[in-house]
């Protein structure tokens, strides 16, 4: 329900009714609607992480791995309503927790991909931790600065595609950083 209708439009009464349980049962496990919502997002991220890790083994070069991770993220994001994203960004507590979780998983993937790319000679030598942090900061900054200006799913997808294009092709070439 959250994915289709967003956070704000779904009440605990509706969740309890749909699940066939009492609200008290939900509150026994989740102290608030926010915590239930965050748990669902965390479970989704864990599921997607397992899928991405499994699929990345099928790709031998760095650009294909980056392309896969970014394409998967774009495709997966289409499963959720614009209200879902808007509600996340409008609630500072939820936004910060979701971005922390997203950053953790993004860092894990970027660090692994960058390390393997350097080992294969497909990415120039660089400080892996710093490069991973820079990528995370770029994503987080764009998320914070542009989301309020986005009014619909099409605009969201265009911004994401531009970001992903930069991330894929802005990493390659050039001289080593000393």
UniProtKB/TrEMBL annotation:
Keywords, alphabetical: DNA-binding, Transcription, Transcription regulation
Superkingdom field: Bacteria
Classification via Pfam families: TetR_N
Signal peptide boundaries: none
MF term (GO), any: DNA binding
InterPro entries listed in its UniProt record: Homeodomain-like_sf, HTH-type_Tx_Regulator, HTH_TetR, Tet_transcr_reg_TetR-rel_C_sf
Occurrences of domain HTH tetR-type (ranges): 1-48
Any one GO biological process: negative regulation of DNA-templated transcription
SUPFAM superfamilies: Homeodomain-like, Tetracyclin repressor-like, C-terminal domain
DNA-binding region, residue range(s): 11-30
Matching PANTHER family: ACREF/ENVCD OPERON REPRESSOR-RELATED, ACREF_ENVCD OPERON REPRESSOR-RELATED
Name this polypeptide is given: Transcriptional regulator, TetR family
Organism, as annotated: Alkaliphilus peptidifermentans DSM 18978
């Amino acid at each position: 329900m959250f994915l289709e209708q967003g956070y704000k439009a779904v009440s605990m009464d509706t969740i309890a009714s749909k699940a066939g349980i009492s609200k008290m049962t939900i509150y026994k496990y989740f102290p608030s609607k926010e915590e239930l919502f965050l748990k669902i997002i965390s479970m989704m991220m864990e599921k997607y992480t397992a899928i991405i890790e499994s699929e990345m083994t099928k790709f031998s070069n760095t650009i294909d791995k980056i392309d896969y991770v970014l394409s998967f993220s774009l495709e997966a994001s289409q499963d959720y309503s614009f209200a879902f994203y808007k509600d996340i960004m409008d609630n500072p507590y939820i936004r910060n927790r979701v971005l922390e979780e997203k950053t953790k998983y993004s860092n894990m993937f970027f660090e692994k991909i960058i390390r393997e790319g350097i080992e294969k000679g497909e990415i120039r030598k660089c400080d892996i931790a710093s490069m991973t942090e820079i990528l995370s900061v770029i994503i987080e900054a764009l998320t914070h600065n542009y989301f309020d200006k986005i009014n619909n799913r099409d605009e969201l997808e265009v911004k994401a595609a531009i970001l992903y294009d930069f991330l894929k092709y802005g990493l390659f070439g050039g001289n080593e950083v000393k």
